[in-house]
């Protein structure tokens, strides 16, 4: 067993017993249902192979919402439902073909950038390499881009990967995760981030005003991988100039040829569809009722939406299928827990946690409104956590625990206490039966970028599990090889069993997990800093 | 300095001085010309970005032949020429698009397999996963493939790369290369290899007879990489059924969907051109004359042809550009060496060393004719080295040394003695000035699979350099990311300088490099083996 900071704390201190020791009979039934009779791979195969990439409000995401809702109902859960929230129009790719036509003919690997218009037919134009990375770059290129296809990224150089693409954590690597990150608050940093987030829209406006025919960005990964993820999103954005993301190797070839004396031209034929009939996205929610209506509920969640480069397998059909499998396993126990158990598949995560914010607003809290009109259109990912005071709704005290899964297909190795060390003793107890499956660490660190973080931002007990990294960051995350075959069946079965067990324990614990105080606006953490406004 | 087996031998033994110590003045001029005034990157940029993939006898290879011949002439070499040899028709891709059309629509990453016909328009058909890996698999699928697109590979599972994709050798890794591999001769192994080599043609005949519409193989690498290299080649092969190679992730998705109840269909639209007006391929040869016509010549070579997945950068525009750069540097010295120096850019290497075999036959040796008619159509890569006796031509004794470069873009770390330890003392001397550039090892090992091997097979002194691996095997070799940006300028400049220096030393050495005796048919090396005919 790994003796991390928090685990050591748990062993050393005589903390009040807030949780029963895990029930070994129920745990045994959970393991049997997940390992010997598991359905997680069939679930994830349907989401990935059969439905494919699930951009929020695309037809594929609609299919996934309906299919998962129906599956929850078939598992025997109560009130399997779609909970709509306003998001904006959907977007999907119909076809895409990009060729260099001069100085020679060559098909290039690329993908339309999300929420940009298609060319709607073959558009051929000379290229210009005009790196546009910040607002001050616009002046240099003004008057030079009309009728051109604009390459907006710096070409850079090929990478030299010195680490293995596929990794499982060893003990020292997990120990390194055990860091209590002190919170950091900086109004200047936030302003800079917000400004940078809006750059994609400003560049689009610049390119449209200049009469550029299309723009091309370079994939941030080598080896031919592409993702097509958008560059900043705010609901209702209407980009005007077609954009494509190109494989780094193909992009750099164009940039080198552009240094020569011969004209270089591209033919872009991208066809996409915007879906505006219904601009509401849906969270998929279902409940396993508890036996004590006053005891509140516990919850598991994962985002169902994805980017469109491939099938959104490791990000995050994997997590969605684990949540669904935990639901199937627990519903199959035929025993009511003390608290209700709620299962959530979020939408709009990839554009800024839209779905989980919507759930918070609909169920749990209100935060102060935006008063600065300049911030009204900024992505809520940046503004939502800055709005004080937080006003709890009546359901606020009912949510006893939230567990999130969104780091690929790797098996669970433990759990992040997410800066709330008071939960470590309990989690250490809950993990005890799973040491032999490789899951025994409780670490202090906070994790970011997915749907538990805004639970935390309002003082709710939201957590994410530690997962083996596998090739998530190096290869599959948002890329065109995020496919089923990069999932690991043994890992997803293990994760499903541990998720189910954690939910069962949390639902039956004597007391809810300890919470921090209701957050109020924090002090600036670096009041003596000078702001360097050079980007 | 690394003390390898052969280097130690060289230091320990008082061998006769067959070579002058490298001339430091000339070496200095070579280094200046290559490092301060180098042209290797401009050369390789033209071959890759501007010309692109150079399949033997394709229009791109014709352009490369003419351009490189002209460059040799511009460097001031004598008699820059094309030396034709019979190869077979050329083949090039005009366009290629492959989509899954059922159960959903999705563009798939694939490439036509070399020397197979195109579909010549959109062909849509249901798929069948029918792994056809050996002749005995045919029986299982007979009568079941008519009108189908046949997936002929086993889907397998995604890889889990545990080593870094990019590597430079450290000292222990180079020491491991120092192995005297005893020759191995086995008529049974050879027969098996030949039989396996012909399998592609037999599978094509089977699929044609069954009425299959097309076939699909799986790329042997993950991460979306594809190559399209052929599966066995013999000049004049006329494949009948269109074949494509598909990215592993896309192939496996099809194979999984085929396990379901819904029909799975592909639409394949591949257009290729066979070029049969001139079936002769060309080696590009040029000479730097020596001052002693009786002293013979030394030679550098690299293959100019490539596969067609990308631009054939690391395989082998890199080696070709280094040979050209050595020519440019040495011609620029304005000093005649004792022996002539010949530069060769081979064609047909990727299909079985056709170009270097042709040079041997045209200039250096004859080998006994094929008597078994069953072997007449077998790829000469397998049969040529088995034909005894070897009869030297008059030019045989003139070739004093041959140096090959064909292992990617990595800098030179030393040289393989290729099972001829008698040369180690000389090579150690020649490398001495380059230790600071990382090139100081002489190792015993033989290397295979490129154009020096059949020089060796007839007893000529043919060698290849040790190069840093970089990402050649893991990523670029034959793949669709074999592009200029995976080349390393510093490495190619270093290799050019060392190649030029080696040629200069070999051309001015007192005596030619020591040779082994003229080979005669070797004994079977494992006369007591039983043959397991289970494949």
Automatic annotation (TrEMBL), chains A, B:
It comes from the Bacteria. Residues 511-535 are annotated as: Disordered. Residues 283-501 form the Peptidase M28 domain. InterPro entries: CPQ, Peptidase_M28. GO terms for molecular function: carboxypeptidase activity; metal ion binding; metallodipeptidase activity. Keywords: Carboxypeptidase, Endoplasmic reticulum, Glycoprotein, Golgi apparatus, Hydrolase, Lysosome, Metal-binding, Metalloprotease, Protease, Secreted, Signal, Zinc, Zymogen. One of its GO terms (cellular component) is lysosome. GO terms for biological process: proteolysis. Residues 1-19 form the signal peptide. It is found in: Endoplasmic reticulum; Golgi apparatus; Lysosome; Secreted. Homodimer. The monomeric form is inactive while the homodimer is active. This is Carboxypeptidase Q. The lineage of its organism: Bacteria, Pseudomonadati, Pseudomonadota, Alphaproteobacteria, Sphingomonadales.
């Amino acid at each position: 067993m790994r003796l991390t900071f928090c685990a050591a704390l748990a062993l050393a201190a005589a903390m009040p017993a807030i949780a029963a020791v895990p029930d070994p009979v129920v745990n045994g039934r959970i393991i049997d249902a997940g390992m010997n009779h598991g359905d997680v791979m069939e679930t994830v195969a349907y989401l990935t192979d059969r439905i494919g990439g699930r951009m929020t409000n695309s037809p594929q995401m609609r299919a996934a919402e309906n299919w998962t809702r129906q599956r929850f109902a078939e598992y025997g859960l109560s009130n399997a439902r779609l909970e709509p929230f306003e998001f904006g129009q959907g977007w999907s790719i119909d076809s895409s073909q990009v060729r260099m036509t001069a100085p020679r003919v060559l098909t290039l690997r690329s993908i339309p950038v999300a929420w940009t218009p298609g060319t709607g037919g073959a558009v051929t134009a000379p290229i210009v390499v005009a790196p546009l990375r910040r607002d001050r770059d616009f002046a240099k290129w003004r008057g030079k881009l009309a009728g051109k296809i604009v390459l907006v990224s710096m070409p850079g150089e090929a990478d030299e990967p010195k680490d293995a693409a596929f990794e499982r954590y060893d003990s020292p690597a997990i120990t390194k995760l055990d860091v209590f990150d002190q919170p950091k608050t900086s109004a200047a940093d936030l302003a800079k981030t917000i400004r940078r987030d809006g750059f994609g829209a400003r560049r689009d406006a610049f390119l449209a005003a200049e009469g550029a025919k299309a723009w091309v960005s370079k994939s941030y990964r080598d080896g031919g991988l592409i993702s097509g993820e958008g560059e900043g999103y705010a609901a209702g954005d209407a980009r005007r100039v077609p954009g494509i993301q190109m494989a780094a190797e193909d992009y750099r070839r164009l940039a080198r040829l552009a240094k020569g004396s011969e004209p270089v031209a591209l033919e872009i034929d991208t066809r996409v569809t915007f879906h505006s009939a219904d601009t509401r996205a849906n969270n998929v929610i279902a409940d396993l009722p508890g036996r004590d209506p006053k005891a509140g509920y516990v919850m598991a969640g994962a985002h169902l939406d994805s980017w469109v480069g491939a099938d959104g397998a490791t990000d995050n059909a994997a997590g969605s299928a684990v949540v669904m499998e935990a639901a199937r396993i627990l519903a199959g126990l035929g025993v009511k827990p003390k608290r209700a158990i709620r299962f959530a598949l979020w939408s709009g995560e990839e554009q800024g946690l839209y779905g989980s914010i919507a759930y918070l607003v609909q169920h749990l809290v209100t935060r102060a409104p935006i008063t600065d009109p300049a911030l009204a259109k900024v992505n809520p990912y940046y503004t939502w956590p800055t709005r004080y005071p937080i006003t709890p709704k009546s359901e606020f005290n009912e949510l006893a625990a939230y567990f999130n899964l969104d780091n690929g297909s790797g098996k669970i190795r433990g759990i992040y206490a997410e800066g709330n060390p008071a939960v470590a003793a309990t989690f250490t107890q809950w993990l005890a039966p799973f040491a032999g499956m490789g899951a025994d660490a409780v670490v202090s660190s906070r994790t970011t970028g997915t749907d538990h973080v805004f639970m935390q931002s309002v003082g709710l007990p939201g957590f994410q599990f530690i997962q083996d990294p596998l090739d998530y960051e190096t290869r599959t995350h948002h890329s065109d090889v995020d496919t089923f075959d990069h999932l690991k069946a043994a890992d997803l079965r293990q994760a499903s069993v541990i998720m189910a067990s954690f939910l069962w324990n949390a639902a039956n614990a004597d007391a809810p997990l300890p919470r921090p105080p209701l957050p109020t606006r924090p002090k600036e953490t670096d009041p003596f800093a000078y702001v360097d406004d050079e980007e």
